[in-house]
Amino acid sequence: MVEDDLELSGRVALITGGSRGIGRAVTELLASHGTHVAINYRNDSHSAARAVAFAESKRVRASAIKADIAKLSEADRLVHETLEQFKRIDFVICNAGIWEGGPVESISEELWDETIDTNLKGTWTVCRAAVPIMKEQKFGRIVIVSSTAGQRGEANVSNYAASKGGQISFTKSLAPELAPFGINVNCVAPGWVDTEMAANALADQARRQSIVNTIPLGRPATAEEIAGPIVFLCTRWANHITGEVLNVNGGSVLCG
After folding, report:
1. Any idea which residues carry the catalytic annotation?
2. b vs e for 183-222, b when ≥16 Cβ sit within 10 Å of the residue's Cβ?
3. 159-213 pLDDT, tens digit each
4. Sheet architecture: strand order including 245-248
5. What CATH superfamily classification does 2-248 receive?
């Protein structure tokens, strides 16, 4: 009965960056609840294949689709192929992202552009392509994965923080725009997460301890602990939530 209440079974989700880290955890959790999954990846075909195999073991349909969502034409193709294979798109999880920074004077134009293009523009390209489908369906759930860096700023990753802050503003703009069409748009803002993206920072024990000292719960999150709130925002239980920024950071950033 609880499973039926979630209204995830039989739905179709497109997860950008769905082969690794938080995206992989979202893919696995949705598949475990009966959601068919289109797994976007940019380079790592082996991880994408493993994600597909896991989903198929849960008896749902799954497909890995290579696309660089920083390019509008690639995002259009990604959404078109998803629709062609699955016939609808119910959930879009905008998760793909990169994290590399430095002092502002050392950030190259190339790194600035790549960060904004992947994290922020890539969110726009996928939403731009998927929204007309959701409007026609009169249903959709968009969840954008931002960061505490986008809420408070963060020294030495101004490029990343700018891209993540942009995602939050984008969420708040899309939510009222798309609500009349039955489309909810929300954002999840993780803090430190123990994934490949943060592996180098967390591998240094002194730095890891300094990070842990800023987290009241005393540790970074696991990818699965971020996936749960993301999937929650796709369920029927979140039907009346839109335009929200859901903080999942162990208490490190307390904001309304």
Report:
1. 160
2. bbbbbbbbbbbbbebbeeebeeeeebeebbeebeeeebbe
3. 999 999 999 999 999 999 999 999 999 999 999 898 777 667 777 888 889 889 9
4. 62-66, 36-41, 12-15, 91-94, 140-145, 183-190, 245-248
5. NAD(P)-binding Rossmann-like Domain (3.40.50.720)
Q: What is the pLDDT of residues 89-99, one digit of tens each?
A: 999 999 999 98
Integer Cα distance of 168 and 175 in angstroms: 11
Which tokens sit at 199? 């592996």
Q: Quick: pLDDT tens for 115-163.
A: 999 999 999 999 999 999 999 999 999 999 999 999 999 999 999 999 9
CA 217 to chain centre: 23
Distances (CA, A) of 24 to 62, 99, 215: 13, 17, 24
List the one residue out of 144, 145, 146, 142 whose CA is nearest residue 178: 142
Percent of the chain at pLDDT exceeding 70: 97
Mean pLDDT computed over 217-221: 94
How high is the pLDDT of residue 202? 76
CA 178 and chain centroid, separation: 19
Look-up of token digits 């929204």: 131
Report the residue count for the chain.
256
Containing 88, the helix (H) or strand (E) segment is: none
Torsion sign across C-alpha atoms 44, 164, 145, 38: negative
